[in-house]
Amino acid sequence: MEHKQLKPFPKDFLWGGSTSAFQVEGAYDQDGKGPTIMDDQVSAKGSTDFKVAIDHYHRYKEDIALFAEMGFKTYRFSISWSRIFPNGNDKEPNEKGLQHYDDVINECLKYNIEPLVTIFHFEMPSALIEQYGGWASRKSIEDFDRYSRTLFERYGDRVQYWLTNNEGNTRIVFGGHMLGGEIKDDKQRFQMGHHMTLAQAKAMISCHELLPEAKISSAPSITIIYPASPDPIDVVAARDYDLLRSGLTLDPLYKGYYPKALWAFLEERDIAPTLEEGDLELFKNAKPDFLAFNYYGGHTMRYFPEGEELYSVPAEVAEKYNVSKSFMKKIAREKQVGIAQEVVNPHINQGEFRVIDPIGLRATLRDLYEKYNVPLIITENGCAAEEELTEDGKIHDNYRIEYLREHIKECQIAISEGVELMGYCPWSAIDVVSVGEGIKKRYGLIYVDRNDKDLKELKRYRKDSFYWYKKVININGENLE
Ligand code: IFM
């Protein structure tokens, strides 16, 4: 659509930034914290683990002061389940863990920064995997609810916005260790996903019961799905993949039922989750208040019937379209036999570490708003790079400024097209340790001086993007240059 004039960002727009506990906190075994599946994860490629990360656990005051200096209206961070319940379901919560997040929340409020709290960001307590296989068991639903209720009771007087589960939707599609429990087969994978979604529904119901004024959402990773070609079979495949990647998690929570066509596919193959009495009732009563989502660029899908070879990017295509190694890995991950598989899209930049597709953000915003009709907030969006300080202690990250500018522009267009967008939180507020790639894959607006082998002094430096974002927030996005 062409526009003559764009609408301004709403006055109370929540400009902010995001992190997650295990990627920033460090202090992995301090003050009673129990181990989680992320503590067990050590990269095979010699990049760092999460034991120290950027030491946010001890330096949160300095970090939040920097966020305040940028003018953040909100800070999205996660709470680590095993700091509160070291074994996931201990009789009593760990007071030291609770106190830590009291301190973080109070520090945000000191600067009028609205805390946006993620209850679960990949960190299944290891003890729950040992006890009953994590999300594989329905017991996880009760334990997650008890953990969530503990947070609502403790922090509800100060936290208005809650997010249940970060990227649960893609964990179901990708499977693997990070789904949080052992996966025997596809049936198990979808069953675990069902439990995870039920746990979100229950926590939403508890939130409304305990905190009638608070607002709660899921936090999936969502993007528009493009068909690989105008061939109708690819067009349907793209829609089907959207049902799998987004509808499978969001429809039960936001509409109260599973997507019908996908359910038929799962049942036909005997991989549909087993539903128990009351499950659909829980979904109907979840009634989330808004929809937070992470956006990192569109996916382009071709029809992928059973028996067909998995697509791998031909060398000449990789060269012609500058397809990065990390994108090749993604191609191998984004698939469902019998539905669709990702292919290279010549119209989208698939460079190292990130796909760059700002128009896809507008399409995603519009699509989500039409489907679910609730206010939206972007809880992750950003670009990674390997970065090194200049001799005078600077990071000239023009590529990040450019990336953010183009995406924020599309947010404004979407707002002008009627989308109710509450806020924008780039990933990441400060450099974090990336899953799999360690600290060399940097997303932050603030540089943290350490590398994968040497912790150095973990000193913080403002990147060029810090100053640019500060200016954007200060004038409420009126000028993005
Ligand atoms: O680092 C992750 C984050 O934990 C979840 N969303 C994607 C980010 C970048 O890969």
Q: How would you explain this protein's 3D organization?
A:
This protein is of the alpha/beta class and 481 residues long. The protein has one domain (14-301, 347-474): Glycosidases (TIM Barrel, Alpha-Beta Barrel). It is 41% helix and 13% strand. The chain has 16 helices and 14 strands. The strands form three sheets. Strands 5-4-3-2-1-12-11-7 form an eight-stranded parallel sheet. A four-stranded mixed sheet has the order 6-8-10-9. It has a two-stranded antiparallel ribbon with strand order 13-14. It is globular and about 55 Å long.
Throw out a few tags for this protein.
TIM Barrel; 16 helices; about 475 residues; four-stranded mixed sheet; alpha/beta
The pLDDT mean sits at: 95
Q: What spatial order of strands do you see in the largest sheet?
A: 5-4-3-2-1-12-11-7
Q: Identify the bound ligands.
A: 5-hydroxymethyl-3,4-dihydroxypiperidine
| Secondary-structure content class | alpha/beta
Distance between the termini: 23 Å
| CATH superfamily descriptor | Glycosidases
Q: How many domains, in number, for the residues?
A: 1
How would the global form be characterised?
Answer: globular
**CATH class call:** Alpha Beta
**CATH level 3 topology:** TIM Barrel
Q: Please count the beta strands (DSSP E, at least 2 residues each).
A: 14
Strand content: 5-15%
Spans where pLDDT lies below 50 across 5 or more residues? none
